[in-house]
Amino acid sequence: VMPLRFLVLIIFMVWGHNKLAAQNDTLIMNSGHFLVGEIKDYDEGVVSIETAFSDSDFQVEWGKVKEFSTQESFLIITTKGKRYFGTLASDKDDPSNVIINDTTQGVIVEKTEDIVYFKQIEDTFWSRADLSMSLGFTKTKANNTTQLSINVKTGYLSSNLKADIYFAAIRNLQTADDITTESFRTEGGLGLLYFFYEDWFSVTRADLLQSSEQLLNIRAITKAGVGRYVLKTNRMNLGMAAGVAWNYEDYDELDNNGDRNSAEGFLAAEYIIFNLGDLDLNTKLIAYPSFTESGRFRTDFDFNVKYEFAFDLFFKIGYTLNYDNRPVDGGSSSDYVIITAIGWEL
Predict the structure, then answer these.
(1) In this structure, how many other beta carbons lie within 10 angstroms of the beta carbon of residue 66?
(2) Among 8-17, 21-30, 277-286, which stretch is predicted with the lowest mean pLDDT?
(3) Which of the listed ranges 31-35, 93-97, 109-113, 264-268 does the model predict with the highest average pLDDT?
(4) Which of 19-23, 86-90, 151-155, 340-344 has the least mean pLDDT?
(5) Which residue from 80, 95, 320, 336 lies 20 to 30 Å from 54 (Cα-Cα)?
(6) How many CA atoms lie within 13 A of 68 on its CB side?
(7) What is the DSSP string of 167-191?
């Protein structure tokens, strides 16, 4: 019978071999230090790597990396919008170059500074998905007010496809003289981007909005168009899109205008700044000129700042504005919300 200590030793050796085999990506820093582990992704100027001795992933600034190598396959995007799928590593003869072993195009050489994004992608669905959640609660005794906010967003990414689903809600209850009044705002939607040529993409979205401020029971917008990332660097992205939309609106029963349906165009721009330490800034503006209601013009505006802590925690400040130059009777032309929240990101 095999002694117990030898059995334990064999199990330990097999486990250790498998563990090391799964963690043989390498980052060599400008200081000469190096990290060995599993590189997860590079996004917004930061490389994430998991090592055998860390409880959480290391976040390393891309500018401090001298050389690197990977063993798994990654989705890789360049400043010119070129998209590859395969392994990548620094050129040992010239670290300013990256050698990409694309699964379909073979060996390709790109400048290191031109690589703006890469993420490890496996065949499983969950390896391509991400999730972000935040929750806020406020209770004020002075005016007997309770407020609850929730924000959930999930996404999916493949070599040529990017999808997202989001939901955000705010409920505000105020009691005075035994009468409780409620104000609310709810947003949700799903979208699909398909990259058909470098930085050019088609976009299809469906978005919903409820707003007590605008007497809006529901606004459902379905839109389709074409867009392009006109600027993409290691510090910022600027994307623009244009297309057509169909807008269905159902207002509060106190309104005498009934439902409103209209065909619209849309012009959208999104500007993202990152690699500012632990800060991220995101601004998005969408304009909706109406084709069927002469002179009507709507806009949606978002501005978000996020600060990341350890253990994937973050603090976020967000501002959202919806404007309609022709509101219904009794409704406001604008509705805005300011949110501060602490959340966790997977």
Answers:
(1) 15
(2) 8-17
(3) 264-268
(4) 19-23
(5) 95
(6) 30
(7) EEEEEEEEEETTEEEEEEEEEEEEE
109-134 mean pLDDT: 79
Q: Model confidence at 292, in pLDDT bands (50, 70, 90)?
A: very high
Contact between residue 97 and residue 67 where contact means Cβ atoms under 8 Å apart: no
In degrees and rounded to multiples of 5, residue 127 shows phi and psi of -70, -15
- Angle formed at CA 246 by CA 242 and CA 247, multiple of 5 degrees: 115
Q: Which long-range contacts (CB under 8 A, 24 or more apart) does 136-142 make?
A: 136/339, 136/340, 136/341, 136/342
**Token representation of residue 331:** 């409704």
Residue type, 111: K
Is-contact 133 342, C-beta < 8 A? no
- Give the separation between CA 243 and CA 254, rounded to whole angstroms: 33
Is the Cβ–Cβ distance between 240 and 227 less than 8 Å?
yes
For the chain, count helices (H), then strands (E).
1, 22
